[in-house]
Write a structure and sequence with these properties.
The chain is built from 6 helices and 8 strands; from the N terminus they run ααβααββββββααβ. Helix 4 packs across helix 5. The termini are far apart.
């Protein structure tokens, strides 16, 4: 009897131990192997490093784009300034500044009737050339802008400037250093003195502010083209 009791007790204890071990196994969550955990950690660090690099690249591209936009704006401003300067030089834009006003008219009735001492187109041309040589930057005759293609010529009994008829008194406006412009015309035995000796009325006045209109004619070339280099 005692032997059977001992065997039964041992069987009971073994059954309890097996049941306890089974429950422990069921409640234990699966764990990630160590090698796999290390691999995932390395991948995470690589992704973090790549993200940091991409953020740096994005910031660099933003700065480059900002500089490019700024460069475009500056280039546009420079181009606009160059176009404005070219328009002034070509005479297609009005200009203002200090200079002189020259007024010349025919002699009195006697001289006008004789036709000998009337103002000629070549007299106006000489005045323009004298002013240009003295540093005039812009000129006009009776509100007609003088440019590189302007013509001053006699057409019948009248003078034409830029194909437009002008009548006396003739007014020449020139922008430049007033003193230099005036002295170039009024030197002894100079052009103005000669014209006055012929009986013409000539006045030269310094002006602090002169406005010269833009050229209104055509500047298009029909035959001329830019020459090829080489």
């Amino acid at each position: 009897m005692s032997k059977r009791y001992t065997i039964g007790l041992v069987a009971l204890v073994l059954g309890l131990m097996l049941a306890l071990q089974f429950r422990t196994t069921q409640n234990t969550e699966p764990t990630v192997p160590y090698d796999r955990a290390s691999e995932l950690t390395a991948e995470l660090r690589a992704l973090e490093k790549e993200t940091t690099g991409l953020e740096a690249d994005a910031g660099d591209l933003e700065r480059k784009l900002s500089r490019a936009r700024m460069g475009y704006t500056q280039a546009e401003e420079i181009l606009r300034a160059e176009v404005k300067d070219a328009a002034v030089i070509a005479g297609v834009a009005p200009v203002e500044g200090p200079g002189v006003r020259v007024r010349i008219s025919d002699p009195g009735e006697r001289g006008a009737q004789s036709g000998i001492f009337t103002v000629r187109d070549e007299d106006l041309l000489k005045l323009i050339n004298e002013l240009r040589a003295a540093g005039a930057e812009a000129m006009s005759i009776n509100r007609q802008r003088i440019v590189s293609t302007s013509e001053v010529r006699l057409a019948g009994s009248v003078i034409n400037v830029n194909t437009q008829k002008i009548t006396p008194p003739y007014e020449i406006l020139a922008i430049g250093g007033p003193a230099a412009l005036r002295s170039s015309l009024e030197i002894r035995n100079g052009l103005v003195e000669t014209l006055r000796d012929w009986g013409m009325e000539v006045t030269v006045e310094d002006k602090d502010h002169i406005v010269i209109p833009a050229y209104r004619g055509s500047l298009r070339f029909e035959f001329a083209r830019q020459a090829r280099e080489g």
